[in-house]
DNA sequence: GCATCCACTGGGCAATCTGTCCGGTGAGAC
DNA sequence: GTCTCACCGGACAGATTGCCCAGTGGATGC
């Protein structure tokens, strides 16, 4: 089994109030402190919780424009392209995918004009045959996991 | 200006060792504790740092398959579609975009077979005209912000 | 039936960190 | 020259952490 009900409640609680601390959690959940501590350790050890890194808002950093670029890669050039993209700070995320494109990456830029600079930099390598970009206008559902955790914990 | 050098070092330090605490940070950075505390408060107040939510790995939760779906929406049905997708736990993220598709969403599923169920649920609303899905195979660059922070802090 | 293992409870301990003050200093703005 | 602001270095009580312990209850295996 992935996680049980108590694990789920711990994660959800932690997601809602990250600064909460083990002691306060144990109070809210009505279990002993040692239990929460042990559960947390296990969740971290199993990799269910990867960490507690700060969530940084690129917009507040001066990068309010987000875009997704679909890239088509020349056969056998995958490794080079990956390394190249990993070196571009504005590439926040990169996936290799099935389908018409071969890679999908998330970009940020200082402005729509600046996005051109970023894309130029992204495609400045031979291995990329074609790139098509979609600019993000709104983000109705920001990255979230709570609903998934709740679903996973119910079983 | 967005963030200065010290802000950048604080964020990077926090990203690398999230459990670190203000006191230890002040030691590592060679500044007074009050300074780090004030900087952190400001970063949080300005929204540069949104929070410290736990990073949950969907794979460890039993959802090892990730996919991106591009959706075409019938004119004027945007709101309904958003609400519908927000109610699907496997939809981790939703963006409205320019370009051929109208929305882009990130999905997870228990297996490739299960992905079919998720997609069926996603498209189970009138407003979606067409959906095209790309399954993620690898994730050479997991979501990251450190390089961007470092770049933003240099100026 | 009985022993064993495991998770949880409830408690206690010292060490550490947090939140919050304070006065003093230096740099830049007016 | 004066003011404002950020930073420093230090202080304080209060709370939390990491760690330990013995006891309990359920599940498992013999």
TrEMBL record, chains A, B:
* Top-level taxon in the UniProt lineage: Bacteria
Q: What is the lineage of its organism?
A: Bacteria, Bacillati, Actinomycetota, Actinomycetes, Kitasatosporales
Protein name (record): Lrp/AsnC family transcriptional regulator
Query: Any idea which UniProt keywords this protein has?
Result: DNA-binding, Transcription, Transcription regulation
> Domain named HTH asnC-type: which ranges?
3-64
Q: Does the keyword Transcription regulation apply?
A: yes
Cross-referenced SMART domains, in alphabetical order? HTH_ASNC
